[in-house]
Amino acid sequence: LILRTVFILVASLGILAALGTVLARNLVHAALFLVAFFFTIACQFVLLEAEFLAAIQVLVYIGAVAVLLLFGIMLTRNIQGDETTGGRALARIPGAIVALAVLAVLIAGIRGETSPAGGLRDKGSPSWTARTTRPPADAPGDPRGPIINQMAPAIGVELMTRYALVFEVAGLLLTAAVVGSIALAHGERDESAGTRPRRLARPAAGPIGPGDGASLVPTRSAPAPAPSASAPR
Amino acid sequence: MSQDIPLSWFLYFASAAFAAGLLGVLIRRNAIAVLMAIEIMLNAANINFIAFWRYGTPPPGEGPLTGVIMALFVITIAAAEVAVGIGLILLCYRRWKSADIDRYDSMAG
């Protein structure tokens, strides 16, 4: 009974925080509501006995993502919210209708698939089943039993053995994302300053160059005709 | 054992959070607010992954940690997505002097 009370408390706080994130007009308030929402998600992970994931949630989401979003809010200087958030209430009605319809469909689907006690209905295909109550952590034959109490080393071993390829791909994706965001943040100034005049000046260097057509392709490996090309400009 | 939390409660919570995030994506016009709403939806999906991991019986040969690994990669993708999204929003803000997604209409026909 205590567990259910805690769940109801955490879930209602989480839904309130999510609605606050969505509906708050001040963007900084929205970001702080988002931090509260992430924290309730971490509490849900603890209730689901995934404490390592709760720690990861706090570190990554509250520590990195929320701070990054706050930096974005500060840099775009739109703290007072959209000037249209409260103005055009008519434009928000379709969005609210769509969201409520999706919520209704999801709840109807969950109600149709779960038994009144809250577990999944048995559909006759025993390949994957879930129960109303969670399986006990020390059940014999359940491979999750010893893992729940030692999740961090188990995740490390699984990432290095079974999910090694996915791990590498995720690392590649993170590298590409970081490089891409740096290129996005720095690309515009460099392009307007450096490359565009050189590319315009390069066809004028065609007669001077020794090649026939090969010098028309601007490459960085041939910097020699660049000063002579920039002279008539 | 009857005091345990039923599986469907987690699913209801996740769907409510998902609907809230969808509402935010649809009605907000600030780009950063839209990004926050996307984060809410990803977290709702994560709750579902962990709930099914904990309440279901894993099929043989799949390893004991599928849902947790999946949620971990969702967190990774979300972090990368926020990094790229903030970069794009700052670039658009520098160009249009606004973070309003209705004003980014260069490709409108």
Descriptors:
heterodimer, A: 233 residues, mainly alpha, 64% helix, globular, disordered C terminus, B: 109 residues, 71% helix
Topology overview:
The complex is a heterodimer of chains A (233) and B (109).
Chain A: H1 2-23, H2 27-47, H3 51-76, H4 92-113, H5 145-148, H6 151-161, H7 164-201, H8 226-230
Helix pairs in contact in A: 1-2, 2-3
Chain B: H1 7-27, H2 31-55, H3 66-96
Helix pairs in contact in B: 1-2, 2-3
Walk me through the structure:
The complex is a heterodimer of chains A (233) and B (109). The radius of gyration of chain A is 28 Å and the shape is globular. In chain A, helix 1 runs antiparallel to helix 2 (27-47) and helix 2 runs antiparallel to helix 3. Chain A has helices spanning 2-23, 27-47, 51-76, 92-113, 145-148, 151-161, 164-201, 226-230. Chain A is an all-alpha fold and 233 residues long. Mean pLDDT of chain A is 74; it is low at 191-233. Chain B is an all-alpha fold. Chain B contains 3 helices and no strands. Chain B has helices at 7-27, 31-55, 66-96. The radius of gyration of chain B is 18 Å and the shape is elongated. Chain B starts with 6 loop residues before the first helix and ends in a 13-residue tail after the last helix. The chains are: A mainly alpha (233), B mainly alpha (109). At the A-B interface, helix 1, helix 2, helix 3, helix 4 and helix 6 of A face helix 1, helix 2 and helix 3 of B.
